[in-house]
Amino acid sequence: MSEPSLTPMKDAARYVGLLIAGGVIGAAVFMGIYKNNLNLMIEQNHGLQSENAKLLGKSPI
After folding, report:
1. Which long-range contacts (CB under 8 A, 24 or more apart) does 2-7 make?
2. Could you tell me if 40 and 34 are in contact, meaning their C-beta atoms sit under 8 angstroms apart?
3. pLDDT of the chain along its 61 residues, tens only?
4. What is the DSSP code (8-state) at residue 60?
5. Rounded distance, CA 17 to CA 27, Å?
6. For 2, which DSSP code?
7. HSE of 22 in the Cβ direction (CA atoms, 13 Å)?
8. What are phi and psi of 21, to 5 degrees?
9. Measured by CB atoms within 10 angstroms of the end CB, which terminus of the chain is less buried, N or C?
C-alpha cells in the first residue's frame, strides 16, 4: 500500500500563501492611498478654517 501524494496539498498551500500575500500587499497599497487623501483633506480643512476665521474676524485656530 502506497502513501497518498502530497502534491495537491502543496498546491493548495501555495495558492493560500499567494492569496494571503496579495491581501497584505493590497491592504498596504490601499492604506497608502487612503493616508495621502486624508492628509490632503486635513490640509484643505485647515486652510478653509483659517479663511473662515479671517472672514468672521476671529483669530485662526
Report:
1. none
2. no
3. 566 676 888 888 999 999 999 999 999 999 999 999 999 999 999 999 999 999 998 766 5
4. -
5. 15
6. P
7. 6
8. -60, -40
9. N
What whole-number distance in Å separates Cα of residue 5 and Cα of residue 15? Answer: 17
Closest CA to 14 of 22, 5, 4, 24: 22
Read off the C-alpha cell for 13: 498551500
Cell of 8: 495537491
As given in the structure block, the three cell numbers for residue 23 are 491581501
The per-residue b/e assignment along 3-13, b for 16 or more CB within 10 angstroms, e otherwise, is: eeeeeeeeeee
CA distance 40 to 50: 16
